Every structure is written in C-alpha cells, then in structure tokens.
Amino acid sequence: MISEPEYVGGTTFDTVEVLTEEKPPRPPRTGRPWPWALGGAVLASAVWGGGLYAYERRAEPGPDLGGYRQVESVCEAAELKALSGVLGKRGSDGAGPQMKDPAVYETSCSLHFGSPDSGYDAQVTYTLHKVIDPGPEFGARSRYYDLTTPIDGIGEMAFFDDRGGEGGEIRVLDGQAELSLSLYRSYGVDEDGNEIGNKDPLDLSGIEVPMSQDMLSLMAALKKAP
C-alpha cells in the first residue's frame, strides 16, 4: 500500500514512502530434523532390512533332508520283523515324547518281545535335524554311549555295542537323520533280590545282524512316510 505524502513548503511533495506487505526472508531452519523425515528414514530402513532378510531366507532353504519326514508313530514304521524272528512275538508298544520344532524333530517309542513277564524290551529313537549338520557330533556321542564297533552298509556311519551280551544297541547317521535301536533283556527281582522272569536268556551273539536288517527297513519306511 502507499502512505499519505508529506508536504514540504506547503505545496510540493518531497518524498514518497512505499510500504509493502512482504515479509523479510526467514533464516534457514537449524536443529533437529522433521519427525516425518525421521519416520520415513526408519520405515525405509525397516523395509529394506525386511526385504534383505526375506531374500536371504529364499536363498537358503535349508539342508536336504534326503527324503526323511515326520511320522505319527515311529513304532508303526519300525516293523522289526528280523528281531521278532529271533526274540519271539512282538508285544504292545509305548509311544514316547515328541519334539516338533522348526529346527529339529524327535520321536521315540518302546516295545516288547516275548512273554509279558520276561523276554526283551526295545526302544527306537528317530531324530531329524532340519538346520544343523549332526555329522561332527555323531562320532562323539557314539563314543560317549560306548558304541565303538563300526558297521558298514548302513547310512553314512553306524556303530554297535552288544551291551555285555544282555542285548545290543545300534546308532546310525544318514544325512540329517539320526536313528537308534536298543535292545535289553527284561527281568525283575523278588523281595530277596533274586532274579525272576527271564531266567534262561537267549544267546544274543550276532544280534547285530537282525538289528541291522531292521534298521535298514526302518530307514526305508521313514522315507516313504506321508
């Protein structure tokens, strides 16, 4: 807008002051950045990090399980026909605890051969490692359980011990799968500490042969599991 002119000497205008509504330029902003700018940077970083994680997950699908799968009952998969031919009729089964985890799956069961008050008890354990390689630890664990006799032709590695003639145990590593089959004589003692039940045990020398046959059959069945 224009102000009223001032009179100088009564009749002439000397100067005219021109006023405007324009404001002086503001100084540049300093200090902390805008919150929305920070939020955008954090969001972009999170999206980028999430995309990188998803890419890495796709790039690393995990180890090859070699066809091994989870089963509802490992006792159903373990027919153990060779041991039944040596030890007698197979009796009732007992399911053990199951561990179902993205990293590892493990299940076990117990069963019996022969008459209910004597005979032989057995246990089957099946562990499927979905992330780590169990190979470096397998030999150490086998030695820890006194399994020192190697058996060829079963998986990558297999070890056996006859448990002093009272039974036997075989442990097998096949890729990401670990399997064990243990067998021991079933008997009890009376109140005087005398043994009752299986007083005439079988000669179990060479028991590793039927145990190895049953282990091979179990490994094949676990690969066919739905």
Comma- or semicolon-separated keywords:
eight-stranded antiparallel β-sheet; 5 helices; globular; alpha+beta; single chain; 226 residues
Largest β sheet strand count, sense and barrel closure: 8 strands, antiparallel
General shape: globular
Given the helix and strand composition, which structural class is it? alpha+beta
**How large, in whole angstroms, is the Cα Rg?**
40 Å
| Count of individual beta strands | 12
Could you report the average pLDDT, rounded to the nearest whole number?
A: 79
Assembly state of the chains shown: single chain
Low-confidence stretches: 1-21, 34-38, 52-56
State the order of secondary-structure elements, H for helix, E for strand.
EEHHHEEEEHEEEEEEH
Q: Alpha-carbon distance between the termini?
A: 90 Å
Number of helices: 5
Would you write up a description of this structure?
The protein has a domain at 74-224. Helix content is 28%, strand content 27%. It has five helices and twelve strands. Strands 3, 4, 5, 6, 7, 8, 9 and 10 form an eight-stranded antiparallel β-sheet that branches. Strands 1-2 form a two-stranded antiparallel ribbon. A hairpin with a 5-residue loop joins strand 8 and strand 9 (167-174). Helix 3 (81-87) packs antiparallel against helix 5 (208-224). The chain is globular, with a radius of gyration of 40 Å.
